[in-house]
Amino acid sequence: MTVAHWCILIAALLPYVWTLIAKRSPGGAGRFDNSAPREYLSRVQGMAARANWAQLNAFEAFAPFAAAVLIAEKVGASQASIDTVAIAFILARVGHGLCYLGNRSLLRSLVWAIGFACVIALFVLAARA
């Protein structure tokens, strides 16, 4: 497996980190009920709500990233470049989640844009291959 493949795995697991934080953070809506987790998460506030939003955004970002990595590799783009951009994406996504938890909206948006730019960069690498 390439470094970029490991990054796909990390990106796939990252939403669950934020989910765990959402379910265990202050601001919860009573005791967590696993029989209705979405209902519970819809009622949380504060850090728990922000962690849930980070989770949702991480799920949204996963598919385009995974597709971009696999397409760039399929067409023969430079593996070193793909790996570098994939690592940058993971760092941006971790930063994005941390900014959500810390309620740093402007910084969060900037870090989100960096992650999005990484996905675009992977497609550009594919186009140039």
In short:
The chain has helices spanning 3-24, 37-43, 46-74, 79-101, 105-128. By secondary structure, it is mainly alpha-helical. The protein starts with a helix and ends with a helix.
Give structural notes.
The protein is mostly helical and 129 residues long. It has one domain: Membrane associated eicosanoid/glutathione metabolism-like domain (Four Helix Bundle (Hemerythrin (Met), subunit A)), CATH 1.20.120.550. Helices cover 81% and strands 0% of the residues. The protein is built from 5 helices and no strands. The chain is elongated and about 55 Å long. It starts with a helix and ends with a helix. The relative contact order is 0.17.
Topology:
Elements: H1 3-24, H2 37-43, H3 46-74, H4 79-101, H5 105-128
Helix pairs in contact: 1-3, 1-4, 3-4, 3-5, 4-5
